[in-house]
Amino acid sequence: MVVVASPERIPRRALERIEAPISQLREIQESSAILKEIRQVLDETQRQTQGNYEDKAEKDLLHDLASDYEGYKLFNRLRVQGTCEWFFNDEKFRKWRDSNTSGLLWLSAGPGCGKSILSRALIDERRLSLNVTTSTVCHFFFKDGYEDRMYSVNALCAVLHQLFTHDPSGALIKLALPAQKNYGKSLIRNLSELWNILLDCAKSPHAGEIVCIFDALDECEQQAGCN
């Protein structure tokens, strides 16, 4: 049903009640437009990045580092509307996110409390950094009992793969080529070398801000044979 009336015949309070939702709607539409533009920029950047890996050594390295880390994340349900807001608005979280220096934020809770759902929400909704277009958010979801999700080398390989494939300059992956030449396919089992590559990437001017989120870290096991 549509009701039409002259503005001068509508009580002032009624007009205010009408104008408030309209203003809120405009704000939502503007925010949605901004998010859409950001996503378009990120998608275009990733498409451009794909053309930077023509070198066979780089392709081989990406192949060795690859895993279904995105699938591990998507295995967790989307958050129900209204949940997780307490964390998004938490002062400690905001202070950590807004800081200009590197820092660690540790979140712990009992099994089934929704930590993994929160982790997915933080990643999917791009809440881990204020520098959305210049930061790289890397993630890994550990899972006890799954050979490719139990060890620190699995997580480091996933983080490096995400860093390399989201770097439009193509410069970061070149930092790993000397180690790949020395260790070949065994590189993905060499904890110290993978860690050193990550440190080199973090120091690079091409990296920008790097945010890593590790879910279920308590399910990470020591791996025999890792250097």
From TrEMBL:
Q: Which Gene3D superfamilies match?
A: P-loop containing nucleotide triphosphate hydrolases
Question: Where is each Nephrocystin 3-like N-terminal domain found?
Answer: 82-223
**Looking at the keywords, is Secreted present?**
no
Annotated coiled-coil segments of the chain: none
Q: Does the keyword Membrane apply?
A: no
Transmembrane stretches in the record are: none
Please give the name of this protein. Nephrocystin 3-like N-terminal domain-containing protein
Supply the alphabetized keyword list. Answer: Repeat
